Amino acid sequence: MNPDHILILPGWQNSGPQHWQSLWQTRFGYQRVEQHDWMRPLRGDWIARLEDVVLSADQPVVLVAHSLGCQLVAAWAAHSSNTRRVKAALLVAPGDPERDELRPVLTSWAPAVMQALPFPSTLVASTNDPYCSFERACGFASAWGAGLVTLGAMGHINADSGLGDWPQGQTLLQALTSI
Asked: How far does CA 109 lie from the centroid of its chain?
């Protein structure tokens, strides 16, 4: 698959230079979907931006989402009439916008969208993610119709988790792109 058709969807505050998403972008040439405001994310704005990028692609895309980016995929899929333009999605460490400590910042993201995605997806979860309990991540996987991969105690599956460029994630992505 053409690297331009693999879209990186970071979460709230973007993904820093040592995050596996940024390392994949640099190493493989995947396209980051830039948002207008990473610090005060508005669901409608983020959905509109993803819609623009998906529509500009000349072939189906694969979504690689982290944290709030996973919620973006679910929200976009629930509202877009262009979901056929997505081949698959890798959803990593979904943030839970309904957590008490996140509600004040992610006001437009609750309630979370809990309906099946119309394309194949894999959700990767950690058992000790500070932004989403493992039970809630399992609930998202079930509601979204995503396969579930559990990494064990890997925190938020980000740069702080010590994954580097996360070869296991690349293997999961390759499995999705070969469907």
From this structure: 14
How much is the pLDDT for 36? Answer: 95
Longest C-alpha distance within the chain, in Å? 41
Residue 55 CA to residue 33 CA, distance in Å, equals: 13
Asked if residue 128 has pLDDT above 80, the reply is yes
Q: How far apart are CA 42 and CA 61, in angstroms?
A: 23
The residue among 13, 41, 7 whose CA lies nearest residue 110 is: 41
Q: Is the pTM of this model over 0.85?
A: yes
Each residue of 78-92: pLDDT tens digit?
999 999 999 999 999
| CATH topology assigned to domain 3-177 | Rossmann fold (3.40.50)
Quick one: tokens of 112?
């979370």
- 27-33 own/partner pairs: CB under 8 Å, 24+ apart: 27/165, 28/3, 29/3, 29/4, 30/3, 30/4, 30/6, 30/64, 31/3, 31/4, 31/5, 31/6, 31/7, 32/7, 32/8, 33/7, 33/8, 33/9
d(CA 148, CA 166) in angstroms, rounded, equals 17
